């Protein structure tokens, strides 16, 4: 059986309340190599660590998502994250970034949170998992300046954006989005990006690949995204998964502690 590393998921999500541990038991006994579960605020980051503590092959990322920065205490969140990041199962700072999709949003505040968490990751020598929606210009300006050891997740951008991200030394990860019929631009970008710079992710419970689009996503469905990536790259599924798993090992340095 092919075992895939899922580099971006949210197993703290309420969507998993009824079967979280049963599901993870099954995934790790079969279809999954390793799983990274990301927090989106302080509380969810702690929960992600509690989940990671239960399994050798589940790791957490801790961070404040741009959509959550108005719900956390700006005076204390960096200290809180620093404490969570000291945990041996913390593999990255994330999910952090910019999201200007839903009105109203506080652009300046999001940028402040994003920059301070990029600084924290650098200080702690941890990689960062970055989210960007409807914020390409601000995102590229900040990444060009900071060049983090990071991954831009759920990539849906153009070849031009991918080229810039790669020039900063960063990784790019793909969700089930590349299996969607209307994903032409992302597929063109995917074809352009060298396979050694690509990671696979679910963003579970969201972004389920075809033929499960719209359903609750989990790491067991990542094979559909891997198959699509293999087709785009003209590789076998086994080879594609092997390379993406190795990329994830190199990027997260699991078990470094
Ligand atoms: Zn995201
Ligand atoms: Zn996410």
Plain-language structure description:
- The protein has 257 residues and is of the alpha/beta class.
- It has a single domain (4-252), classed as Alpha-Beta Barrel (TIM Barrel).
- 41% of the residues lie in helices and 17% in strands.
- The chain has 9 helices and 8 strands.
- Strand 4 (90-99), helix 4 (107-124) and strand 5 form a beta-alpha-beta unit.
- Helix 6 packs parallel to helix 7.
- It is globular, with a radius of gyration of 17 Å.
- The two termini are 29 Å apart.
- The model has no long low-confidence stretch (mean pLDDT 97).
- The structure holds zinc ion (2 copies).
- Residues 95, 131, 153-154 line the site of one zinc ion (ZN).
Task: Provide a brief overview of the structure.
Helices cover 41% and strands 17% of the residues. It has 257 residues and is an alpha/beta fold.
Main attributes of the structure:
binds zinc ion; 8-stranded parallel sheet; 8 strands; 257 residues; 41% helix; TIM Barrel
| CATH C-level class | Alpha Beta
Q: What topology, given as strand order, has the largest sheet? A: 1-2-3-4-5-6-7-8
Number of strands: 8
Distance between the termini: 29 Å
Number of helices: 9
Enumerate the distinct ligands: zinc ion
Number of domains: 1
Q: What's the helix-strand series?
A: EHEHEHEHEHEHEHEHH
Counting helices, strands and paired strands, the structural category is: alpha/beta
Strand content: 15-25%
The largest sheet, given as strand count, sense and whether it forms a barrel, is: 8 strands, parallel
CATH topology: TIM Barrel
